[in-house]
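Bench notes, bay 3.
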Amino acid sequence: MDASSSPPLTAPSTVAVELAGITKRFPGVVANHDIHLSVRKGTVHALVGENGAGKSTLMKILYGMQKPDEGTIAVDGEQVSFSSPADAITRGIGMVHQHFMLADNLTVLENVVLGSEKLHGIGAGARRKIKEISDRYGLGVRPDALVEDLGVADRQRVEILKVLFRGARTLILDEPTAVLVPQEVAALFANLRELKAEGLSVIFISHKLGEVLSVADEITVIRRGTTVGTAVPAETTPRQLAEMMVGSELPTPETAESTVTDQPVITVENLTVHASGGASLGPEAEPVGPGSLVEAAGEVKKVLDDVSFTIHAGEVMGIAGVEGNGQTELIDALIGTKNADSGTIAFLGEDITPWPTRKRRESGVGYIPEDRHRQGLLLEAPLWENRILGHVTEAPNAKGFWLNPKGAQDDTRRIVEEYDVRTPGIDVTAASLSGGNQQKLIVGREMSHNPKFLIAAHPTRGVDVGAQAQIWDRIREARREGLAVLLISADLDELIGLSDTLRVIYDGRLVADADPATVTPEELGSAMTGAASGHLEHVEEEAAPEDEAR
């Protein structure tokens, strides 16, 4: 590893992108200070750092979304100045954002073509090009699907396709593997190697340091807004990278004893949810893989099919599955934002199936949503108002029937301190925070109400290794106090490391159980795609709910 803050410039003929001395200031904070980054042509260059370290700001500058206060940008050896993303796109730079830039009410084809109509047209030519790119890179994208009907993983594939459609030669990928299973990650990495072989360059931003080391040719580490070092994957380890990111040694994790009790907290029996509110789809609908809306021509698809389980006090039950196999519908049914077509949900022995969302929340159901921007935050509202969301009737946000702004403000300051939310103050908007700091605010908000049952959907998506460990510790601490947790995550290491019981969902059904102590991510990934595994116990069709509980 090289700990120099200003790496020497690479020979211009081999450089795709060069950032030199980049500095960007915002009111109350310096996001970037004298950043240096050199990306060689035909390589994958990883950029790592803690949440709030300045990675996203730096990439927004490269993509023309913001202008630097100081420093220069060079593309293919020529100094450039971008006033908008259109300028960057013209120079062959494309960006897949951590939070998607898609119009929900448009189709995949319309989203991909939007703003690029002159490239391949808007009809048959565009459709052929989309299919060609989708097939080549195994994206499995359906041009006529509405984006609002897509899961998180499919949305990300659309974003990647959109960049490739525009002919990008340098791709910025911000957390591209956050929702992918191991097989999908391996396929993506194979595609990146193909792009490298064709002379394209990739800037790869990720908090999954093992993946960074496996795919990157070079790694740049930034900390607190400045470059602190470079690393060569063959000469470093994930732990060394993490310590470069945080500036100190990481503690060694302790082995925790089981906290599972015999007290049921949440009991789900025979829960079934139909697609699109039970609407039947016409015979022209295109059949697709698991998680699709179509079972056969003219039939209604059960997106959640006869699901039963029990989670006990002190237990984390993890659910592993490829996005779109019923996880979202299960969450919606549990939190009360979608009614189940059949089945029951009991909370601490009481049937809550007919309860509205607010009553469930007030009774002790916590919720970390899978998409923090769409479901967890008001981005243009200050942090203290976001503290109130989902808990508007509860202390310290309310006194009797009235809101209590001071109580919410004081408690937001506590959350900011306890959860290390990097912010200049509680009056800044949620949009001004990095993704990881937004996530820490949401976790702090939900844990502050001492829930008895926590729905945790991708709780550490997009957070750095230090924040991830902190969130895990908070969940483990609450579990020791009797919290029951439903954990849904695309991070298989997270599922295996946190879960007491682990189940696999496929095509809307719980199809297998896994022992977190023995299962490997590869075995779990295979089961998620429908393949059998010798270390997983497959659930029998006729199993009674009590037999499926653990």
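Next record in the batch:
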Amino acid sequence: MLDSKIVGGLVVDGTGAAPFRADVGIKDGMIVDVRRTGELPGSSGIETEAVETIDATGKHVLPGFVDIHTHYDGQVTWDTLLEPSSGHGVTTVVSGNCGVGFAPVTPGREEWLIKLMEGVEDIPGTALTEGMTWGWESFPGYLDRLADRGLAVDFGVQIGHGPLRAYVMGDRGARNEPATPDDIEAMARLVQEAVEAGALGFSTSRTLAHRAIGGEPVPGTFAAEDELFGLGRAMARGGRAVFELAPTGAAGEDILAPARELDWMRRLAEEIDRPVSYALLQVDAAPNLWRELMETSAAAFEAGAPLYPQVAARPFGLLIGFAGLHAFSHRQTFRSLSHLTPRERGFELARPAVRTAILAEQDLPVDRSVQFDGIKDLIAVALDRLYAIGDPPDYEPTRERTVAAIAEQRGVPGLEALYDLMLESAAGTDHPATSMLMIPFFNYSDANHDAIREMLTHPAGVSGLSDGGAHCGTICDASYPTFLLTHWARDRTRGERLPLEFLVKKQSADTAALFGLGDRGVVEAGKRADLNVVDLDRLTLHTPRMAYDLPAGGRRLIQDASGYDLTMVAGTVTRRGGKDTGARPGRLLRGAR
């Protein structure tokens, strides 16, 4: 008898093949049978009885998604659900990206790592301080600490350059001083040890956009080639792992740097014969540079160098609204409402007298030492790049949807239009001030998704950069998998779409293959039963909302989806009808050692 079988669904198996109607049989956490139905003579599906039969008639059956760029390093110690990712068909996450993490750690230096993570990834330090349970020093000790935790998804992690440098070099490493040969040798031993213990890779950050909460660049930002190559070689000695990085110039701070970075990345990939994966974005300062970098990567890939750019599914930027960042946070009347609940504050902001007062006031002084404290200046001068995205959100809005254009249409000042747009209630809410607007820093230079489509279809590109678990008050891109299915496969109107089977492969088999996870990402016998049953016609990505459910009352943006009938991890249903079942079959995922 099977544990379960999914019958009557249209299977998109993750290989890129066209959808086909089939039944899927599951036993002991594995797919044991995929039987086509109604397409071949004598094909009547799986007749073996099952404890549970799941009717997927009219639905699509997809592999569980593998998200390779998340930051749940701390959250995983207190939270077994790992939202937002687990609500978007994701069954495997890879954390420890961008050179930050929580192991190894010198006893007594835990708070320093928290501040580093808070600065780089905008995860509230108070939430990490209150929520995290420590109990390790080494990276293998961190893995052992997580090994027995039951989770809603499988969790894999890389060792980050920042904690590694601080552990070995102390304050010298934290200050980005050059590493000596002895330093490099000591770090290399720990990298090899981490991969042998199950780390999925090594990560580093070299972009000046990544800074600790005090403004200091991430340790490793200025690392020389001898350090980078020494750590890359050590990683390769440890086993099958990935060298991941945010390169210099990734955020547009130096448009000449990415080409230089690609040179050493290509040489490293060739030497160690391990994947080197880097963040690639379209930047306004050089809107066509990404294409040159993609072509260089493709040529290197075709020549045998495993060089993989990670690309995003949509514009990459900040969400603006009264619940998070906005242009009025330094006005006295707004600050006087800080003691209210979000719902109470929303009603106050909607009162004409409060609106008039806030719009008439001058800003109070800005503390430039505080992260995002000066964002209101950027918002105020960038109204021609700040888009109203609506509900359901439209991530490919035309220029007529900028705040500046709407203000002109209404005949009002720009900040007045911004205030009113942020005040609009999102669907399903019972109070105002819930609308979010988008200011895209990357991937929207041309005010359309044509560049993103080209990145997604490039043979060297890998779907990544969701940052699940990070940028809690400003970004909510853990919903990338749902966005691929809705916008790119079904809803896009301003340009060409992409085939469903291509997109599913991009977010399952391809991402799994990058990290050598050959046991998942495809719906076929012998693979893990990580699966989604999706009502694609009904699949909807809702507007982001602010939740206050992190430890210490920390806030984070959540983006819900409806249309996922069922998500299964290792043969156990973890979500049904979009709701958590409470099952925790996910485990720590150790790499090939």
